[in-house]
Amino acid sequence: MQIFNMHWSPDGRQLAFMGRQTGTQWKLYIVDGETGRLQPVLSDNHSEADPSWSPDGRTLVFGRASDRTAEGSQLNAIYMVDLATRQVAELPGSEGLFSPRWSADGKYIAAVSSDKTKLMIYNVINKTWRQLAEQSIDDPTWSQDDSALFFDDFAQAGHSVYKVALAAGKVERIGDLNDLGLPKGVNFQFAGLAPGDVPLLNASTSAAYIYSADLPR
To answer: Residue 144: pLDDT above 80?
Structure first.
């Protein structure tokens, strides 16, 4: 199975992710951390992506093509699924958005526009949306205190990582991945935050190398 976008439940016992077998559509799965038992979240024919847990671990928020459009269209929407009943509801006003991220305090859900140019915030209590940032945006991640969001500007050389404060809306450049001084040919992707809001990076290279080894006789 291809696996992408994994997130631990708040109690650390379950892992939610999007996965697919070759030739099939993306679906949401939950795996038990102790037993390894794997189960799909939904059994319908829609594709599903980008799961994010509610603070109480009872709900997943995720993205998929809107129910009001044909499967595979570019118009996305954000949905919530009750894990006890498996009931699904569309988040109001979320058409054209994807990649949801629920804040740990439960007050907000962040999402990105389908063209990856706007970072949006949904107020769970007031049920309203507002725009927080506008530039090339990917992989939004909440800070540990939920006061800011970090994201990757994939359109910039070096995939610069930015931080935007929730209250003031101030966008701050944290660093350029090229600043690491690693060899050319290495590609980077923002992969979340370590304790202390330290950015984590995935690094891969398409370069091939030839090695020699002295073998024991």
So the answer is: yes
